[in-house]
Automatic annotation (TrEMBL):
Entries under InterPro entries matching the protein: DUF892_YciF-like, Ferritin-like, Ferritin-like_SF, YciF
Stated name of the protein: Uncharacterized protein
A Pfam family recorded for this sequence: DUF892
PANTHER family in alphabetical order: PROTEIN YCIF
Amino acid sequence: MSTPLEIYVAGLRNAHAMENQALAIMHPQVSRIKHYPEMAERLDQHVVETEGQLTRLDRLLDKTGSSHSSLKDTALSIGGTLAALGHSMAPDEIVKNSFANFAFENYEIAAYKSLLALAEQVADDEAISLLQHNLDEEIAMSEWLDSAIEPLTLRYASLSDSATEAKK
């Protein structure tokens, strides 16, 4: 049986790997976007936020006397890279990426809500503040993506009607 602290530390490690996966998904997307500058700009901003989230998670792991799992980080980064590569072959790459990003942001939201519950259980007040910061950034990104899906889809359709390469 695991103690609440052990479950919490495992959750921090999982969140660290999850954020590395997010970076592996976003970096290739940003580098490929041509006709959707608002998406590129928001993804760039979220890359910076995600790097800050990793720093906060490292701080919390250090505080528990632990560190991130290199194996989990690497495995999920590879998975993220493969996911981004898979969409790059689709004619509607930008639309598929927006769907996948929205789903991933909501996964991250759920993960941080779970971690916050565990941080409260182990009475780690500093962690509550740092994890709430991460959660707030994920919620903001999810809300932005939610509001962007329809206009992005319509822009893709409009560009597809012209001779412009609309996929990115």
